[in-house]
Amino acid sequence: MSKGYIHSFGDGRADGDAGLSRLLGGKGANLAEMTNLGIPVPPGFTISTEACIEYMKTGQRPDGLEQQVDEAIALLEQRTGMKFGDPNDPLLVSVRSGAAISMPGMMDTVLNLGLSRDTIAGHVARADDRFAWDCYRRLVQMYSDVVLDRDVEPMERLIDARKDAKGTTEDTDLTAEDWQALVDQFIEISKADGGQGFPDDPREQLWGSIEAVFASWNNDRAISYRRMERIPDDLGTAVNVQAMVFGNMGDDCATGVAFTRDPASGEKVFFGEWLRNAQGEDVVAGTRTPQPLKTAVGGDASLESSMPEAFAKLNEVQARLEKHYQDMQDIEFTIQRGELYLLQTRSGKRTGVAAVRCAVEMVEEGLIDQATGLKRVNADALEQLLKPVFKTEALKSAESAGSRLAHGLNAGPGAATGRVALSADRAVEMSADGPVLLVRIETSPEDIDGMKKAEGILTARGGATSHAALVARQMGKPCVAGCDALDISYDNGTIKVGDITLREGDFVSLDGTTGWVYQGEIGTEPSEVYRVIVDGTLGEDESVIYPYFAKLMSWADEHRRLGVRTNSDTPEQAAAAVKLGAQGIGLTRTEHMFFEEDRILAFRKMIVAEDETARRAALGELLPMQRADFAGIFEAMGERPVTIRLLDPPLHEFLPHEKEPQEALAKQLGFTLEQVQDLVAKLSESNPMLGHRGCRLAISYPEICEMQTRAILEAACDVVGGGGQAVPEIMVPLISEAKELVTLRTLIDATAEKVFEEKGRRVDYLVGTMIEIPRAALMSKLIAETAQFFSFGTNDLTQMAFGLSRDDTAPLLDFYVEGGHLPADPFQTIDQDGVGRLVETSAREGREGNPTLKLGICGEHGGDGESVKFFHRAGLDYVSCSPPRLPTARLAAAQAALEDDATT
Ligand code: PEP
Ligand code: MG
User: Fold this and answer.
1) What is the DSSP letter of 531?
2) Nearest ligand 1 atom, CA 799
3) 460-516 pLDDT, tens per residue?
4) SS3 call for 350
5) Does ligand 1 have an atom closer than 6 angstroms to the CB of 441?
6) pTM here?
7) Ligand 1 within 6 A of 858 CB?
8) What atom in ligand 1 is closest to the CA of residue 796?
9) What are the distances in angstroms from CA 161 to CA 130, 166, 175, 866?
10) Are 275 and 291 contacting, i.e. CB atoms less than 8 angstroms apart?
């Protein structure tokens, strides 16, 4: 017997529910669930993801599927009282994709299937001939695009030509005759290149569409989206075949998209957009700019005042759906002759700001518990709350210079400035030379790579629920949509706004929070949350989002067991990090202190020193500077531990490589240019990242280690002597062999004794090492006998474990990730199977060698949500990350603890 692939719904009954999303896709599972709840949903059936998986394997319709579809159509005919292909009363259906994890707009949809030369008259009889022929041309156009893969641009041009001839810009001014003539022309175009054209047989249309949806699982944009969202490739899509309802049958019809809360701010207001006399794709594709649902914002144009009864019903349904799903819902609806139908509900995509506010308010409303609230927020999205806004002064002068260009919908928060790129490809190209804004008439899913590279997105058409807005919000990109004052010409490479003409490459700025677009470059600065927490320029109660953020963070801190530290190199950064929740410093890179103007010369003198005496003299100049730096950091951190790493990078990094600065240095040092150039040549290495760096510097020049130890501990003694606190942890970088650490620890301890004697006081300090060479990870038991802590340097560990440069292999990695050779960039998200295993082994064996060993991680992975969860599971004591990523680390650590609790 063949497998059952079909799950029907209708008449208040469904073969499935929301729990079956893996099999039915999110859309199918929720259509079933809504049907079971008695919410009005047009009847239909879902072909399961198993059929798609089978189809992808064999390229054939799975055994038994045709017969099952025939039976499902028969049941649908019974439920609707119409017949598929019937000339008098034809059943029309939609065919839509629907994966288990929502991939908005990435896969295919075909509407109005079942129209043909034979059935058009029956459809005309339902309403009027203009409507019916419009449906028919939509079908031919969509089918040609999606199933036949034809260029449909010529079809759009024909529509525009007809509108021009009539002196109108509105589709609604075209008559039945216009659409009928266009259908004929479209069918001709569909036969392009002598290929098979649009099929007039409804059954053929149905199967063409079902197979196109199966195949769309593997189209380029779906693959690219899956890479970005880390969605597995083998899930497949379900196919939903559903009786059509029409939002475009007349003025008592409408269609729209709604959110149960504001997806940009998270505010608990019913929020959405609608269009009278239109089909759903008109709203989502952004081809017409829709009106708001609620009167408060929409005035007379709102659905509430235009169709009060349908609105009241919709309002009731949305409240029910949110309560039922216990989450903010994103709803698609159609009103046919005043009758409301729900076409979709799913958990709504939201900005980081909205995610935080919704989660906290839902917990407070008693809709969900605290653990659920914490798990709801994508930890990585928290970074958005710290996203920049325009600098007040820069904005003021832009405003007074009259550089406001236009206003659109505030579709994704945050300020962005950059050069205009008018296509996704140009955005990708131009982004190599600095920030770009992607500016489009409307975006389509093909633009995804350009959207990724752009600082912000600006579109002339489309509402807050258009593709541009949805995807931008999810990516955390500032976005202004539906900015219809922009007259964009791709051909001329220009944007006209009134009498201003901008060209590709000109600077434009946008504020996705207010919706304003400006001519020119406007500097940006930290966000509201950043200003409340970090620089204190905004009061807690002056900020809307801060109280929600603070509450979520306090809940996260109650649940998490993993410590969270920061990577900071200056007292200012350290102080900001403490405000963002840092419990200590996990990494201070001392080399960053040497690059400043007044220090670099002293450091270079140290490098060029010919013997130890000369080197010690140069180090003597550096000692007070380093001591002052460390004292500042200890003061900022108080009782919190501060891990300071000894010098790490290869010395040639500190010397100039261009002729001009080399000449200047030669003058400063009293050398000849040739002497400087010889020195640079002598220090240069073929593989500097695998060369004379890290602890190898300290082994070959112990006086550097001695000076830095002295600076750290003298600073600690001074701070403690002044009544403060200092908890230093001295970290040795890049060891590969236990003896290196034994040698350096002996030197550090001896230097410490000298300092304590001189200062007449002792401070507690630890000596530990970074584990960032695979050999060190494997020698951890022995190394731990000399170390009081390990900190995993997962940047170098990843580089060396993969044998892939961390500095210049980004394009190769993109290629690998896109090609599915790697699940994600391992420099961003820890490679759990390989590098992660080194971490786990090292942690376990390190603790065998020293049961009190403290374990942390200070590579970039310490601020990546997924990686943080992994480090929790690996049993580390803390993660350390850059200050803006601290909220992400705190929340991810709480989520990891909650996930742990749920499985034990
Ligand atoms: C690391 O390698 O992970 C690390 C933190 O050190 P750096 O990035 O300075 O090499
Ligand atoms: Mg390193």
Assistant:
1) I
2) 2
3) 987 655 667 767 765 768 899 888 899 999 999 999 999 999 999 999 999 987 889
4) coil
5) no
6) 0.83
7) yes
8) 2
9) 18, 9, 14, 52
10) yes
